[in-house]
Design a protein that fits this description.
Protein name: Lipoprotein
CATH class: Mainly Beta
Number of domains: 1
Strand order of the largest sheet: 1-2-10-9-6
Helix content: under 10%
Structural class: mainly beta
Number of helices: 1
Shape: globular
Distance between the termini: 41 Å
Organism: Phyllobacterium pellucidum
Order of helices and strands: HEEEEEEEEEE
Largest sheet: 5 strands, mixed
């Protein structure tokens, strides 16, 4: 699996809290970005990172580390079990009804903050020494 495929597999996000990143774009090999909307005063799920086998069993989702903290809020990483969200037609879409281990990334804006924020995380597949970098551009509104 290529670096780009591995990154997109991890970014094929189990989207949390009804938050759907849009305009996923490649900025350079091994990195990507997503735009996310958030509400002031509320925690928002930015992404769920997961790996799924062909038989729909989950694999170790790897690890995440925050490279650049948000200037106007906080982020946390939490392990949980949830459903993947592969697009219709994807060969693993049949697995969307199976719970798999995930790493969730959550953002909470500072009290009273409305505007743009940014978080950069590094995601690494289990057993790999290569990180893929993802920049989340967060727009916080009332």
């Amino acid at each position: 699996m290529s670096m780009r495929s591995a990154l997109y597999s991890m970014i094929a996000m189990a989207l949390l809290s009804g938050c759907v990143p849009s305009e996923l774009s490649t900025t350079k090999e091994g990195s990507g970005s997503a735009k996310v909307s958030a509400k002031a005063g509320q925690e928002t799920g930015l992404a769920g990172f997961y790996k799924v086998n062909g038989d729909c069993s989950g694999r170790n989702p790897g690890s995440l580390k925050v490279v650049t903290e948000p200037a106007h809020g906080t982020v946390r990483i939490q392990r949980f079990t949830g459903n993947p969200t592969y697009a219709s037609g994807h060969f693993l879409a049949k697995c969307n009804s199976h719970k798999v281990p995930q790493l969730g990334l959550f953002y909470r804006p500072a009290p009273g903050f409305v505007g743009s924020d940014r978080v950069v995380v590094a995601a690494k597949a289990a057993g790999s020494d290569v990180y893929g970098y993802v920049t989340f551009h967060i727009e916080v509104a009332n």
